[in-house]
Hints:
Layout (H helix, E strand, L loop, with lengths): L1 E6 L13 H18 L4 H7 L1 E12 L8 E12 L2 E9 L5 E13 L10 H6 L22 E2 L3 E2 L13 H9 L8 E8 L8 E9 L2 E7 L5 E9 L7
Antiparallel strand pairs: 1-3, 2-5, 2-8, 3-4, 4-5, 6-9, 7-9, 8-11, 9-10, 10-11
Helix pairs in contact: 1-4
Amino acid sequence: MYTFEGRIRYSETDSEGKLTLASLLNYFQDCSTFQSESLGLGIEYLKEKRRVWVLSSWQIVVDRYPGLCEPVRIGTFPYAFKGFLGSRNFVMTTKQGEYLARANSLWSLLDTDTGKPAMPSEEMVAGYALEERLEMEYAPRKIAVPRAGSRMEPIVVKKHNLDMNHHVNNGQYVDIAMEFLPEGFTVAQLRAEYKKQAFLDDVFYPYVACEDGRIVVALRDAGEKPYVVTEFLGKENGEKG
C-alpha cells in the first residue's frame, strides 16, 4: 500500500472543526496521484502516451471525521485490472491504525485523441502492484434514481470547477451535490457514478430525491442525461465496513 501522512488543516474543516467530505475526497485523489508520480506513471507519462485515467465511480464509507490538527495516514492500492478498467481502494486511518474512512473506486483508461477506452500498457500493469482488496461492504456501482424528486435551479460550470484536464474535477461534482443536503446532515456513505465529463460553461440541471433514508442528487444536462449521480446516506442509515 502506498501511504503518506498528513494533519487536518483549518481550511479542510467545517463549522464543527471536523474534516469535510470534500476534503476527504481530495486526500484520496491526491494519494493516488502521489503514488502514480512516484512510480513514474503520473501526469507527464500519461500525456506522452496520450492517455488519461477517468473516475467512473466512488464509494466512500466514513467511520469517523477527524478533527482539526489531528494526524492522519492516507493510503491507496489497486486491486484489479479488467480490460480498460482499474479498481482501487483507499483508506484514511489514525497513526494508531484506527479506520477513519475507506473507499472503493473504479477508473477507466481513455485515449485522449479519440475519447475511447484504451488498454493499459504492460508497463502500467507491471508498475501498479495489485493487492488483496480491502475488507468492506461493497455497494453496487449503479445508483438507482427515484422517480419522485425535485428539479432545482440550473448551475453554470465556472473556471474554479475545472482541473488540469480542463473538465470538472471529480470532487467538485460532489461539492456541488452536497449543497442540496439538509442542514445538519452528516454523510456516513457517499456513492458517485460518473456518466460524462462537464466543461467550462456547461450547465447542470440538478435533480434531488429522497427515498428510503437516502438522498440522491443527479446533475443533468438540458436533455436530462446525467453528468453524475450521487447518493448520500446519513449517519443513522449508513452501513460501516
